[in-house]
C-alpha cells in the first residue's frame, strides 16, 4: 500500500464543500476524539459492474469475481460490497478470495469490555465424545410449518410453546440443546470466540455484512427444530414478533408473564405495553402526564412513523442485494494493519435499522451494555430475541417478492459457500452453507399471512421548496454560505449539532442503460467507539431552519445510521470504521429533483452518541 494512503494531508486536497450548522439543536464545539485510526483517503471514481450470472458458478467464476472487485473493496464493503470503490491494495490478485468458515478447534472464551477490565464469557459449544461434523441436508417430504404472529396465538399454542421452552431450559447444562447453550451460539459468533478457518488471527463476526440474514435464519431453524423434538412435535413452529404492523408494535403479551419460561427480567420496564416501539431509533413515547386524547394522538403518530420507516428500509433503500443484505465479507485480510480486517464492513437496511432499534427498545437500562437484548453477547438469553429475529427473517422473504429486477440474492460462490456450525435436534454438529438456506420453504417453514400496511406508506415531500441544492441557485447565496463561519473540511465530527453540507453530484455515466444505475449517497469512513450506542438521521434538500428536522414520513428523509454496543474491545480496536450507503433515486423522483441539478444538500441529525465522518459523496452504481 502506498505510504500516502493514510497521510492526513490527503484529506485536505478534496474539493471544498459548504457546511451549515442547523439551528434546531443546541450548539456545541466540534472536537475530535478519533485518534486511534488514521484518516482514510477515498478518491476513486471508478464504477465496477455488479452483474452476476444466473445459476451456479464454477471455479472459473472466482477469477471473474476477482477481476471485478478489489480485495479491499470486498472486505470493507466500499461501493456497497458489490459495486465500485477505491483500489487500496497493491496486488489484489495475490490475495485469496475465500468464504467465511468458523475454526471450531480454536474456539475460545468471548470477551466483553466492561470499561475497566475485560470480562471473559464462555460461549463455545460443548465438545461431545465421538462427535463429528455432518453436512446439512433439508428434511424431505415434510409439510410446511407456518410460524404464527406472536400477538395472534391461542391458549393451546401458548401451552405447547411454554412446555417446549421449559423443557429446553431444564436440559443438562452440558447438553448443546440447553437454552443457555443455544443463547451462547449468538455470543460465540458475535464476540470473538471463533477465528476463521485459514486465518487464525482473524475473528469471525456475523453482523454488519452479507452473513447477517443467513446466519440468523439457520440459528432460528435449529432452535425451532430442537423445541419441536423436545415436545414430540416435528411440525412445531416458533412465533414471530410482528413489529412492522400496528397490532404488533408493543412487546407481545405472551412474553410478559414473570412466571413463564418466556420471560426475561433483563428488559426495559419502561417499554412494557402499551408503549410502542420506535423502529427508527428504538426509543419510545412513554405516556406523558397529559390527556388521554393527546397520548392516543402520539401513538397514532408513532405507528405512522414506523410504517414509513419500514417502507424506507424495505422499498426505497433496499433495491439491490448489497443494500438489503450488506457488504461482502471474506476470509482473512492482507495484514493486521489493513483496515479490511475490520469484521464489520457495512450492514444492510434492516440490520442497521429496525433490527437494531428493536434490540435497543427491549434491552434493560443496565450500564454499560443494556443486557440482555441491548447487547450482542447476551441477546440470545432473552426468549423474545427469537421472535424478534423471526420477523427479521420474514423481511428477507418479503423483500424477494417486491417489485424490482435487482431484488434477488447474491449468486457469488464466495457468499454461497460461507458456512456456520450448529447442533441439531439430535445433538449432531451440522455444517450449514449459505446456499442451503436461501428459501425458507425448502427448509420446511413459512410465515402466517398477515397484512403488510407499510407497503402503502410511501413518504411525501414536506413541501415544495425551490432553491436550496438546485442548479439554478448557485449564485451569491451559495457563495456566501461557502464563505460562512461553518465552512469545514472532512473529516467532520457529529455529536449534538446537526450539520448541513452541500454535495456535488457526479456526471451520470453514459455507457450503461438508465435502468441499471442507482444514484447513491455514500458516507465513508464513519468512525465511532464500537461500545457506544449511536444513531443519526440523514435527509436531503431539507431547507427547514427550525427545530423540526425531517421525519421518516417526509420524502426528504433518506435513512439512518445505528450502532448497537458490541462490548468487544478486548481483542480488537475500540474504534469501528464503517460506511453507509443510501439509495437516492426514488427520493430524487419524489422531490422532483432533475438530473441537471449539480448539488444536493445533505443534512445529518445526531440522535445519540458521537461519530466522525471521513467523506460524503454521491455515486452511480449498478
From TrEMBL:
Cofactor: Cu(2+)
Cross-link 2'-(S-cysteinyl)-histidine (Cys-His) mapped to chain: 190-207
Entry GO MF terms: catechol oxidase activity; metal ion binding
Keywords assigned: Copper, Disulfide bond, Metal-binding, Oxidoreductase, Thioether bond
Region (Disordered) residue spans: 456-476
Residue ranges of domain Tyrosinase copper-binding in the record: 207-224, 382-393
Superkingdom of origin: Eukaryota
UniProt: Cu cation A binding residues: 186, 207, 216
Covalent S-S links between cysteines: 107-124, 123-187
InterPro entries: Di-copper_centre_dom_sf, Polyphenol_oxidase, Polyphenol_oxidase_C, Polyphenol_oxidase_cen, Tyrosinase/Hemocyanin, Tyrosinase_Cu-bd
Keyword set includes tRNA processing: no
Name under which the protein is recorded: Tyrosinase copper-binding domain-containing protein
Chain positions recorded as Cu cation B binding sites: 355, 359, 389
Keyword Metal-binding: yes
Family: Belongs to the tyrosinase family.
GO biological process assignments: pigment biosynthetic process
Extent of the signal sequence: none
Cofactor binding mode and count: Binds 2 copper ions per subunit.
SUPFAM superfamilies in the record: Di-copper centre-containing domain (SSF48056)
Amino acid at each position: 500500500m502506498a505510504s500516502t494512503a493514510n497521510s492526513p494531508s490527503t484529506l485536505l486536497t478534496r474539493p471544498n464543500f459548504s457546511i451549515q450548522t442547523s439551528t434546531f439543536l443546541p450548539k456545541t464545539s466540534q472536537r475530535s476524539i478519533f485518534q486511534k485510526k488514521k484518516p482514510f483517503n477515498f478518491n476513486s471514481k471508478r464504477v465496477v459492474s455488479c452483474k452476476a450470472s444466473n445459476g451456479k458458478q464454477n471455479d472459473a467464476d472466482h477469477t471473474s469475481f476477482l477481476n471485478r472487485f478489489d480485495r479491499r473493496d470486498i472486505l470493507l464493503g466500499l461501493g456497497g460490497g458489490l459495486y465500485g470503490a477505491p483500489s487500496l491494495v497493491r496486488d489484489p490478485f495475490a490475495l485469496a478470495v475465500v468464504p467465511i468458515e468458523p475454526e471450531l478447534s480454536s474456539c475460545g472464551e468471548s470477551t466483553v469490555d466492561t470499561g475497566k477490565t475485560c470480562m471473559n464469557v464462555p460461549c463455545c459449544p460443548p465438545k461431545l465424545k465421538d462427535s463429528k461434523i455432518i453436512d446439512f441436508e433439508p428434511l424431505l417430504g415434510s409439510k410446511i410449518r407456518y410460524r404464527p404472529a406472536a400477538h395472534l396465538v391461542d391458549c393451546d399454542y401458548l401451552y405447547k410453546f411454554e412446555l417446549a421452552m421449559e423443557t429446553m431450559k431444564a436440559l443438562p447444562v452440558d447438553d448443546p440443546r440447553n437454552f443457555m447453550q443455544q443463547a451462547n451460539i449468538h455470543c460465540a459468533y458475535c464476540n470473538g470466540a471463533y477465528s476463521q478457518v485459514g486465518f487464525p488471527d482473524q475473528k469471525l463476526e456475523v453482523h454488519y455484512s452479507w452473513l447477517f440474514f443467513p446466519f440468523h435464519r439457520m440459528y432460528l431453524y435449529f432452535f425451532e427444530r430442537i423445541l419441536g423434538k423436545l415436545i414430540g412435535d416435528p411440525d412445531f413452529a416458533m412465533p414471530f414478533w410482528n413489529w412492522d404492523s400496528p397490532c404488533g408494535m408493543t412487546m407481545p403479551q405472551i412474553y410478559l408473564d414473570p412466571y413463564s419460561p418466556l420471560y426475561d427480567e433483563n428488559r426495559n420496564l419502561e417499554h412494557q405495553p402499551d408503549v410502542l416501539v420506535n423502529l427508527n431509533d428504538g426509543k419510545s413515547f412513554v405516556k406523558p402526564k397529559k390527556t388521554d386524547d393527546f397520548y392516543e394522538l402520539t401513538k397514532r403518530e408513532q405507528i405512522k412513523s414506523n410504517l414509513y420507516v419500514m417502507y424506507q428500509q424495505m422499498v426505497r433503500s433496499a433495491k439491490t442485494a448489497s443494500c438489503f443484505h450488506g457488504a461482502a465479507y471474506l476470509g482473512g485480510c492482507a495484514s493486521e494493519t489493513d483496515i479490511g480486517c475490520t469484521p464489520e464492513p457495512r450492514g444492510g437496511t434492516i440490520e442497521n435499522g429496525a433490527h437494531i432499534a428493536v434490540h435497543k427498545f427491549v434491552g434493560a437500562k443496565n450500564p454499560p451494555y443494556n443486557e440482555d437484548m441491548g447487547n450482542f453477547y447476551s441477546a440470545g438469553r432473552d426468549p423474545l430475541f427469537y421472535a424478534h429475529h423471526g420477523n427479521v427473517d420474514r423481511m428477507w422473504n418479503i423483500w424477494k417478492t417486491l417489485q424490482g429486477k435487482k431484488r434477488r440474492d447474491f449468486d457469488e460462490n464466495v457468499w454461497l459457500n460461507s458456512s456456520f456450525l450448529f447442533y441439531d435436534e439430535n445433538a449432531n454438529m451440522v455444517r450449514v452453507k449459505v446456499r442451503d438456506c436461501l428459501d425458507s420453504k425448502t427448509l420446511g417453514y413459512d410465515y402466517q399471512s398477515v397484512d403488510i400496511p407499510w407497503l402503502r406508506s410511501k413518504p411525501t415531500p414536506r413541501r415544495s421548496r425551490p432553491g436550496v441544492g438546485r442548479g439554478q441557485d448557485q449564485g451569491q447565496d451559495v457563495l456566501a454560505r461557502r464563505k460562512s463561519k461553518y465552512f469545514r473540511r472532512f473529516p467532520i465530527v457529529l455529536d449534538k449539532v446537526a450539520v448541513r453540507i452541500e454535495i456535488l453530484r457526479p456526471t451520470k455515466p453514459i455507457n450503461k442503460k438508465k435502468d441499471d444505475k442507482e444514484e447513491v449517497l455514500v458516507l465513508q469512513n464513519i468512525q465511532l467507539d464500537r461500545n457506544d450506542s449511536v444513531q443519526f438521521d440523514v435527509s436531503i434538500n431539507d431547507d427547514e431552519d427550525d427545530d423540526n428536522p425531517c421525519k421518516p414520513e417526509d420524502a426528504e428523509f433518506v435513512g439512518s445510521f445505528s450502532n448497537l454496543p458490541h462490548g468487544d474491545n478486548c481483542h480488537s480496536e475500540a474504534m469501528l470504521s464503517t460506511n453507509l450507503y443510501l439509495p437516492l433515486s426514488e427520493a430524487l423522483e419524489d422531490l422532483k429533483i432533475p438530473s441537471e441539478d449539480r448539488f444536493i444538500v445533505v443534512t445529518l441529525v445526531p440522535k445519540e452518541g458521537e461519530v466522525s465522518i471521513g467523506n460524503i459523496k454521491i455515486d452511480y452504481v449498478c
